[in-house]
């Protein structure tokens, strides 16, 4: 919403309430979405992000917006458009650590 306020989110109803910092420790499968739903949602959000990025001018990418990470600070639209890739890379790193702890083979 901060990047492009006029664009409606493609997240399913209730998604943000189900997956947030308060529910991060939830491990009950009945309270979580299944793999197919999560992958489909990821793809919809990814496609929407790509479409938005293609429309942004250099000026829009440089526009400052409130940071969702540190109250009272600013970031740029360009940084926020880059965040999904950074976030995904963080989780890939976490998965590699878990695989090594479980003595799984190194895949890449």
Keywords for this entry:
single chain, 108 residues, 2 strands
Question: Please, could you describe this protein's structure?
Answer:
The chain has 108 residues and is mainly alpha-helical. It is 51% helix and 6% strand. It is built from 4 helices and 2 strands, in the order αααββα. The protein has helices spanning 15-18, 35-55, 58-62, 77-101; strands at 64-66, 74-76. A two-stranded antiparallel sheet has the order 1-2. β1 and β2 (74-76) form a beta hairpin. The chain is globular, with a radius of gyration of 17 Å. The model has no long low-confidence stretch (mean pLDDT 89).
The percentage helix is: 40-55%
Uncertain segments? none
Figure out the total of helices: 4
Radius of gyration: 17 Å
Strand content: 5-15%
Kindly report the oligomeric state of this protein.
single chain
Cα-to-Cα separation, first versus last residue = 36 Å
Give the class from helix and strand content and strand pairing: mainly alpha
How many extended strands? Answer: 2
Produce the secondary structure layout.
Blueprint: H1 15-18, H2 35-55, H3 58-62, E1 64-66, E2 74-76, H4 77-101
Give a quick rundown of the structure.
Helix content is 51%, strand content 6%. The protein has helices at 15-18, 35-55, 58-62, 77-101, and strands spanning 64-66, 74-76.
